[in-house]
Amino acid sequence: MASLKRPMILIAAAGLGLAACTNPDGTTNRTGTGAALGGLLGAATGAIVSDNNKRGAVIGGIAGAALGAGIGNVLDRQAADLQRDIGGSGARIINTGDQLIVRMPEAITFATESANVRASIQDDILAIARNLQQYPNSTVQVIGHTDNTGTNSFNQGLSERRAGAVASLLRQGGVPGSRIVSFGRGETQPIASNGNANGRAQNRRVEIVITPRG
């Protein structure tokens, strides 16, 4: 029973730590969140594996916190660099704490029902490629999405072609193809209501998802 209680205490303590990982302006401190999450996992693992050795939890917590803080710090810096380079393009940069998502709406990326990348956004996609080369320790998913207008099969094919077109530009910009996978989700993953024009416009998008390698 004691072996079960110790990880639960560590989880509760880490939960309090996560609640404190905010900046004065109310935004999330990704580095602090990464450290807290890393510490939680490391300490819990150390406690379970080394039930009779309290040092196991301490060592595990320190190692996990260092790893989590390191990943969070890199993502913070990479997001800041992306914001500097493409902040005026209309793309949105989302830092989840363990991934970066560059969300590119159709309006700036493609003409209606087209998979040809607009000339006006190509330099920004190449800037993303340069950023990915500066931060090479990650994998990249390029995912196409549509609204629900039209048939399922058309939307699926369009989302795949659009994701492929953006991925091709990233490769042309010097990102190794081994880091990139592209695919389409069609209309299956909306982020807004398809019941109005504004929501459908948000759903028509390509997302570049950057995930650090552990």
Write the layout of secondary structure elements.
Elements: H1 2-19, H2 30-49, H3 54-86, E1 92-95, E2 100-105, H4 106-109, H5 119-134, E3 138-145, H6 152-172, E4 180-184, H7 197-203, E5 205-212
Parallel strand pairs: 3-4
Antiparallel strand pairs: 1-2, 2-5, 3-5
Note down, in words, how this protein is organized:
The protein is α+β, with helices and mostly antiparallel strands. It has 7 helices and 5 strands; from the N terminus they run αααββααβαβαβ. A 5-stranded mixed beta sheet has the order 1-2-5-3-4. β1 (92-95) and β2 form a beta hairpin. The longest helix is centred in the first third of the chain and has 33 residues, at 54-86.
Largest sheet: 5 strands, mixed
Return the structural class.
alpha+beta
Q: What fraction of the residues are assigned to beta strands by DSSP? A: 5-15%
- The spatial strand order of the largest sheet comes to 1-2-5-3-4
Q: State the shape.
A: globular
Order of helices and strands: HHHEEHHEHEHE
Number of strands: 5
Radius of gyration based on Cα positions? 21 Å
Low-confidence stretches: 7-11
Q: How many distinct helices? A: 7
Share of helical residues:
55-70%
Mean pLDDT comes to 82
How far apart the termini lie comes to 32 Å
